[in-house]
Backbone:
């Protein structure tokens, strides 16, 4: 049977100051993915290796890691794509390490708590009616499985302490903003508190999304434009000002 | 290693953060109770995300003749007359309201041309009844409920494994949990506790279930005296992937058949014409699953041991729109383009119809202070569950459970527990950190193999007795498990803790399957192929000392108004 070498980052911060890559030899089966290889190591070589996975089907977004330094889901990366060459598996670099391949991603729920929730318009007649075409935009964002690979790849998050909430959370806000019956505008939150201005649209997030959500094109850029239109457009400023004056009179 | 732990107090403690747990948390919080919810996985990763096809609710948006009465009769009849009628009635009546409420929480269902919630056909539902979001309905539910949860005053602790429930004078008063990320113990004092930990599919080798579906809550509840019911009823989904090996068992949604997919054997025959000429591919799951199995066993299977599921005739645009995640799943994992090629599928363990016995109104168990909702509870689905009824179940009974537990908490105080018991439990957990112990994965593999080989889709007395002997042997060995490493995020340790609980589920399934000497719904015996009118009863599993005892109990009689809705059972 063919074998492949998987080089796994091992680090227990409780007892070590530095981590290291450890090589494991794993027999290759047809159609095997990186997660299968990791499960083999877990079952047959070292059950104490820390690794997070759940659905094994690309639906839950638990098994995020960096495979050959590219943010990827272990369950969707096929071993045969490496043609027998050594594969490295390391934890997501943008998050604090818990142990081995497991990182602490809890800050994401703290951010999600800050995004204003779905707030339906008042007085909508029940049962609600919406047309399919109007829900399609929001639906694209709702495919997000919260794997946080987009957060991991984002250089603004990795290299700068800017306060930028990150691509996942822009997608979340956009999914609510583009709900046909929602009444809020979250672009103000995103562009002030959310630090969206720090994103310089390099589209890295979009390139690693396992759900192929066009994060930059369909969520980030429209939310940036919304803010510009609402707060910086000179004509809109004049209209707003005259409306306010009108109200005063 | 010290035996320190952090103590929390909460009115309502919810163990499990899938759809049922989260819906319960929202209800309990809205009823004015303080709520703490624990999740074994990260928040939002629970097995509910895997649900694909939809939520059954008789909104009658597509088929105007649909109503709760028809939903009631479909569910009760396909449960083969051993469901608790009151649970079925509640489900059928309340599901539409729960769906509309979910929409008001922000869920976006697919729409009809006139803008209402779209509904699709599903196996053994008389009308098109399943409200859906493409084939990602579970993800939409989880995300929507998660959103609601995060904006309420609910305390969330994820990656916490509950090792034991504690009682005082028979009432459940708290639970001890181990936080994986730092290895710290937490003791949650609670006035009321809800078990919402899902099913036990992972005790089988070939299953559609996530890693975490190991039946933990079922075992924990049984250990404190909760009665189980109908555990012998394990649903095989007719269509799981068979290839490649890494994804064997992974679910292929019934939505494929709902949208027009047909089943073919290797000879190209549409074999459902022989097994169910009227309902064809959309008959109940037990019937379609056994038909697939029979074709494979008769040598008319495909290259990798399955049958074909074909939807290519619907065209690429339709398939990509209606079944986007199935399209991606086959392309990513098997390299198969389902718009042009047939899928290979075979039955896979999918759902546990049985579970903890609960009261239909409040979901309370026979143990005071303990409630259960979702797949871990029993009574609703009887001997066979209809597709879409489990998502309805988690919303309807999740809410009732949250309210039931909240009301109980308002009438009760905190109960105390002797600290020495907590320390003893922590010592038990830590005793598994022993590198000379038996490898827990080896034993778990033996269990999974045994269940899939001997307690499968068609059962027989000899195999079941063999399986029971193996399980009892594994039970003896389960005290000698051990792993290397520290307590921090040690998945091997977690497997040691899960294993005894997996054995409780396995033992119940096997003992029940031996006891039920007939074929009814999902339970099929080669040596007793007929349904027995004498056995239209529920099997109850009671803890007696360290033993599991089985009792037959009569199915609650239908009141006259409901009796009129269902045809009498035929034998």
Residues:
């Amino acid at each position: 049977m063919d074998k492949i070498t998987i080089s796994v980052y091992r680090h227990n911060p409780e007892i070590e100051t530095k981590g290291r890559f450890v090589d494991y030899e794993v027999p290759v089966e047809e159609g095997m993915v990186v997660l299968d290889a990791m499960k083999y190591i877990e079952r047959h070589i070292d059950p104490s290796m820390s690794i997070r996975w759940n659905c094994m089907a690309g639906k839950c977004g638990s098994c995020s890691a960096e495979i050959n330094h590219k943010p990827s889901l272990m369950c969707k990366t096929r071993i045969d794509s490496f043609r027998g060459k050594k594969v490295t598996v390391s934890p997501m670099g943008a998050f604090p390490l818990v142990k081995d391949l497991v990182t602490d991603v809890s800050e994401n729920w703290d951010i999600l708590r800050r995004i204003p929730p779905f707030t339906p318009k008042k007085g909508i007649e029940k049962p609600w009616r919406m047309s399919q075409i109007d829900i399609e935009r929001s639906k694209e964002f709702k495919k997000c499985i919260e794997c946080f690979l987009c957060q991991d790849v984002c250089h603004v998050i990795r290299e700068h302490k800017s306060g930028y909430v990150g691509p996942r959370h822009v997608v979340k806000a956009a999914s609510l903003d583009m709900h046909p019956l929602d009444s809020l505008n979250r672009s103000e939150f995103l562009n002030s508190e959310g630090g969206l201005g720090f994103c310089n649209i390099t589209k890295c997030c979009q390139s690693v999304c396992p759900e192929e959500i066009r994060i930059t094109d369909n969520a980030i850029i429209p939310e940036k434009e919304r803010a510009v239109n609402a707060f910086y457009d000179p004509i809109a400023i004049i209209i707003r000002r005259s409306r306010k004056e009108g109200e005063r009179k | 290693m010290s035996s320190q732990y952090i103590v929390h107090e909460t009115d309502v403690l919810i163990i499990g953060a899938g759809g049922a747990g989260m819906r319960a948390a929202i209800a309990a919080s809205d009823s004015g109770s303080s709520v703490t919810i624990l999740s074994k996985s990260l928040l939002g990763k629970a097995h509910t995300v895997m649900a694909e096809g939809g939520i059954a609710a008789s909104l009658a948006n597509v088929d105007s003749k649909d109503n709760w009465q028809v939903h009631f009769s479909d569910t009760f009849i396909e449960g083969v007359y051993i469901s608790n009628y009151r649970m079925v009635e509640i489900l059928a009546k309340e599901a539409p309201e729960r769906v509309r409420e979910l929409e008001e929480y922000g869920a976006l269902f697919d729409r009809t041309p006139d803008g209402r919630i779209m509904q699709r056909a599903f196996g053994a539902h008389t009308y098109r009844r399943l409200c859906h979001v493409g084939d990602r309905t579970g993800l939409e539910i989880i995300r929507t409920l998660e959103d609601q949860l995060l904006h309420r005053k609910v305390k969330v602790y994820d990656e916490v494994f509950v090792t034991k429930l504690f009682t005082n004078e028979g009432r459940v008063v708290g639970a001890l949990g181990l936080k994986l990320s730092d290895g710290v113990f937490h003791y949650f004092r609670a006035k009321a506790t809800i078990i919402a930990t899902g099913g036990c599919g992972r005790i089988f080798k070939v299953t559609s279930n996530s890693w975490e579906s190991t039946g933990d809550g079922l075992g924990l509840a049984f250990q404190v005296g909760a009665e189980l019911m109908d555990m012998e009823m394990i649903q095989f989904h007719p269509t799981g992937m068979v290839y490649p090996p890494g994804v064997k068992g992974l679910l292929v949604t019934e939505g494929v058949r709902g949208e027009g997919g047909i089943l073919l054997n290797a000879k190209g025959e549409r074999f459902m014409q022989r097994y169910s000429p009227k309902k064809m591919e959309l008959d109940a799951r037990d019937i379609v699953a056994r038909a697939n199995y029979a074709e494979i066993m008769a040598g008319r299977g495909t290259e990798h041991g399955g049958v074909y599921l074909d939807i290519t005739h619907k065209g690429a645009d339709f398939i990509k729109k209606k079944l986007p995640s199935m399209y991606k799943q086959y392309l990513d994992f098997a390299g198969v383009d389902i718009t042009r090629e047939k899928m290979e599928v075979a039955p896979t363990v999918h759902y546990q119809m049985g579970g903890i016995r609960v009261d239909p109104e409040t979901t309370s168990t026979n143990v005071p202070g303990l409630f259960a909702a979702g797949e871990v509870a029993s009574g609703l689905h009887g001997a066979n569950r209809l597709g879409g009824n489990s998502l309805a179940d988690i919303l309807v009974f999740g809410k009732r459970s949250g309210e039931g537990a909240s009301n109980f908490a308002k009438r009760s105080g905190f109960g105390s527990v002797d600290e020495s018991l907590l320390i003893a439990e922590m010592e038990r957990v830590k005793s598994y950190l022993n590198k000379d112990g038996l490898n827990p994965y080896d034993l778990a593999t033996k269990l999974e193999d045994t269940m899939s080989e001997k307690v499968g889709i068609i059962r027989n007395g000899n195999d079941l007795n063999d399986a029971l002997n193996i399980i009892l042997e594994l039970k003896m060995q389960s005290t000698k498990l051990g792993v290397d490493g520290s307590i921090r995020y040690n998945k091997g340790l977690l497997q040691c803790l899960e294993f005894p609980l997996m054995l409780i589920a396995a033992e119940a399934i096997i003992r029940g399957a031996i006891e039920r000497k007939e074929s009814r719904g999902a339970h099929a015996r080669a040596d007793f192929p007929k349904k027995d009118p004498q056995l239209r009863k529920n099997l109850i599993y009671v803890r007696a000392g360290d033993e599991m005892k089985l009792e037959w109990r009569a199915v609650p009689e239908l009141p006259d108004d409901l009796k009129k809705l269902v045809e009498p059972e035929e034998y």
